[in-house]
Design goal:
The protein is built from 17 helices and 14 strands. It has helices spanning 5-17, 21-25, 27-31, 64-75, 85-92, 96-110, 154-166, 185-199, 214-222, 248-260, 277-288, 318-331, 348-356, 376-385, 401-414, 418-421, 427-434; strands at 57-58, 61-62, 115-125, 171-176, 204-208, 227-229, 264-266, 269-271, 296-301, 336-339, 361-363, 367-368, 371-372, 389-390. The strands form 3 sheets. Strands 3, 4, 5, 6, 7, 8, 9, 10, 11 and 14 form a 10-stranded parallel beta sheet that branches. A two-stranded antiparallel ribbon has the order 1-2. Helix 4 (64-75) packs across helix 5.
């Protein structure tokens, strides 16, 4: 597997940008990976020894916890779901270039950094939703000029899926503006037919239909559904400020039903709702402490919709987006991290930084539900220009196995296997440990 120009530049980029402090702050990168591996090009003169490392200093304050949390995360050779909020905060607050450098290292270990999954999201039932999500154009509670529609026909969906496939998309996603699927047996039957037909094209299929019970999740699984999207949106603490008609635990229940049915979970959040950095940390904490990490984690930035309560919100600072992506990559190493809504506002260079920090999926096409999206042609130029290539359907290529093996050996010797895997957790534990929603 040959490395892309973007992958080859990751190590030298961070060294040039932050010499020599970066190297003092990330001893794990140069102590747990043998020099024979070609995946990290760190010259010998920059190799430091753990015993010689001083504490990391941030804003004049020595912070051993930041270095320790980052070291532990980068040293791990598999996912763990025993993260504490303090550990995630320490990682999130690390010097930004250190954070990106470490995230890119984790990314290379578990993924092929030259691959990006291309997804297309089609609205199959627009508007008329009874929920009060403060950011959403499809809520019937707000005057956004969007009219409610009926479920689209099978023919129109298959036409859109063929166009997406022919333009390089390998995952086709469908969204319906419903609170839940109660009393929608005929709609569920039609959606199952859509899923079967799209799977027949060789594509992955994801849907987002609101809350599901366990029986509905099993029906979708039997139809061949690849993944189900159900975002938690933000931290548990900030959530009631954004939505009151659906509790945080109801979202977790749907995620549990989907997971128990054997469907891959797609769950992430939205940045720019008026939250603080503590809520970014809380969002990642919720997702990374689920019994099983989401297969994919979409990171959205708010697209302000006139007429909604958040229609006048100012754009979130890009550094916060980058920190959230990098932290998600480090603590959920095997998950796909997807640049979702709002990507159209990012420059090509900012998107490249997100790929460096571990993002490896995008939504592409003319529309993403009701908001504008970057076109296929633009994204083809973007990927080609940065040495990236589309991920094939059902392809999850790992990074450098030599890196994984070396970290396994080092950690087993130093810490023992129990420190690497964590413990089995249930959704009830997640609810208890994060508190109960209002």
């Amino acid at each position: 597997m040959s490395a892309s120009p973007l992958a080859k530049s990751m190590a030298s980029f961070a060294i040039r940008a932050h010499r020599p402090r970066v190297l003092r702050a990330i001893p794990t990168l140069v102590t747990t990976i043998p020099r024979r591996s070609a995946a990290v090009a760190v010259p010998d003169e920059h190799v430091a020894r753990p015993a010689q490392q001083p504490s990391v200093e941030i804003n004049g304050v020595k912070n051993d916890h930041t270095r320790s949390a980052l070291q532990d995360a980068v040293s791990a050779y598999g996912p763990r779901n025993t993260w504490t909020r303090e550990e995630i905060a320490a990682i999130y607050d690390a010097p930004l270039m250190d954070l990106v450098y470490n995230a890119s290292t984790v990314h290379r270990r578990f993924h092929d950094p030259s691959q990006v999954q291309l997804c297309t999201l089609l609205s199959i039932k627009t508007g008329g939703c009874t929920e009060d999500c403060s950011y959403c154009a499809q809520s019937s509670r707000y005057d956004t000029g969007l009219k409610a529609s009926k479920l689209v026909t099978l023919g129109s969906v298959l036409k859109a899926a063929r166009m997406a496939r022919d333009n390089g998309s390998t995952r086709f996603c469908m969204g319906a503006a419903w609170r839940d699927m109660k009393g929608r047996k005929s709609n569920l039957r039609d959606i199952k037919e859509m899923i079967k037909e799209i799977r027949g094209m060789g594509m992955e299929v994801c849907v987002t239909l609101g809350m599901l019970d366990d029986a509905q999740a099993k029906e979708l699984k039997e139809a061949g559904l690849t993944a189900y999207n159900h975002n938690v949106d933000t931290s548990r603490e900030f959530y009631p400020s954004v939505i009151t008609t659906r509790s945080y635990d109801e979202r977790l229940n749907t995620i549990d039903n989907v997971s128990q049915a054997g469907i891959s979970v797609c769950s992430g959040g939205i940045l720019g709702l008026g939250e603080s950095k503590e809520d970014h940390i809380g969002l990642v904490y919720t997702l990374s402490t689920l019994p099983k990490h989401p297969e994919s984690v979409p990171i959205n930035t708010l697209v302000p919709i006139p007429g909604t309560p958040l229609g006048d919100n100012k754009p979130i600072e890009f550094k916060s987006v980058l920190r959230t992506i990098a932290t998600a990559r480090i603590v959920m190493p095997k998950s796909i991290v997807r640049l979702a809504a709002g990507r159209i506002t990012l420059s090509e260079e900012k998107q490249a930084m997100c790929f460096m920090a571990g993002a490896n999926a995008i939504f592409t096409g003319d529309k993403m539900l009701t908001t504008d999206c970057t076109s296929w042609d633009e994204d083809k130029d973007l990927l080609e220009g940065w040495g990236l290539r589309p991920m094939k359907s059902f392809e999850r290529e790992t990074g450098n196995p030599e890196m994984v093996d070396s970290v396994v050996e080092t950690n087993l010797e130093q810490e023992g296997s129990s420190a690497l895997f964590g413990t089995e957790r249930s959704f009830e534990q997640v609810k208890r440990e994060t508190g109960s929603s209002a």
